[in-house]
Write the structure tokens for this entry.
Amino acid sequence: MSQLSTLPWQLLDAIEDISQAPLSGIAESLWNALPPFVASSALVIFTEDCTGRPQKKAGAEHIVSRVSIPELDAIRAAMNGGATTDSPASSDQAEPWLTRAAIAGEDRDILALGYPPSNALLVLTDPVAPEDSEAMRVLSYLWRLTAARIQEKVSDAPPSYLLESRAASAERIRVTAELVDQHSTTLETVLAALRSTSMDDHAARTFVTDLTVKALIGLRTLNDRTSDLVEEPVSTAFERLREDLRPLMHFSNIDIQFIEPPANGRALPGEVAHAARAVVRGLVLAIAEQPEVHRVRAQWDCDGENLLINVRDDGRGELSPDAPNMERLHQKVQALDGRMSVDVMQGWGADISVTLPLDPPSAPAGDVAAWGLVARELEVLQFLAAGQRNRAIAAELNISENTVKFHLRNLFRKLDVRSRTEAIALAHSAGLR
């Protein structure tokens, strides 16, 4: 009993909480686990695996609400040796790094850690890091556990994640495009005015012109960066599938043949790439459970509008389309408005075809605009349509549950509905998923 009484139960409870946390709450779980080891004002996780919500945050609202992707990109570049002279080499990016960097619009002391397997980044602002090396080792351990958990959850690509990811990705692109258009027009007008021959203050005109050009480039870069986050080249996505299946090729007697997609095919939305890999992995594992399967062929193609997936095996044709594991894969495909057909040929194996649309279904013209929703209300409605409860919506948007309820009341009034079910049905009819 004396040995049991000395076990670090607080740390073990924290590990359990992180291991069981959903994606929407994993930053909060890590944040709650760290104070005994490293105190900080806020915590930000940046992971491009989560196409819908690449940032996961906890801590001081005035910091987490202002953190931007370009700032996190710059910190990660510095960790990889691309921005500062005192940054660690990229091979050491998993080690804690104390430095000063621009975050949330200000220069702050930060503690940053990378996770090479997924290129994820953890940033703690205003850290009070103890000199005890054991505390830093615990921090590194908890971060690796968290990053691996995120990678695992995203790799599974459940239907709810795919729905949420698609909604958030589409909204981010829309908002960013509007900002770029708005500020580009403004800055281009300023440039025209400053270049006017009626202005004689040449030095001032030159300085402001250069400054404005840099601002334009920054805006365009931000727009390109946002698009990069939610898209993945089809060849890169397929190569990641090959890497995912490599262990199975090593430890089974099945020869997996890969028929690669065209290298210049259309880039895949992030949620489509995740779903495609998850579906093929699931199909290969289901096929591997059958007797006398020696060869599996996995092929991707793209017709410009859809990702076309085909998986065939040379077994005895005993794959059951109604099995629970096949039904789960079918749900993932349906979450993205895709189609899956299974053709089982007795004595000849199975032939599975999957079609995943690259674009979300278009909403009926004018429906959403006619509701008169502000941006935050539309975000809440999208999460509601994806099946999220108030607590999960609050966690994703970094607002309170009472604020979510406030937005829902406004939504019900503007949509002229009386319940969540009616609101969800109306949202789905307008193409929101």
Notes: Residues 158 and 275 are 8 Å apart (CA to CA).
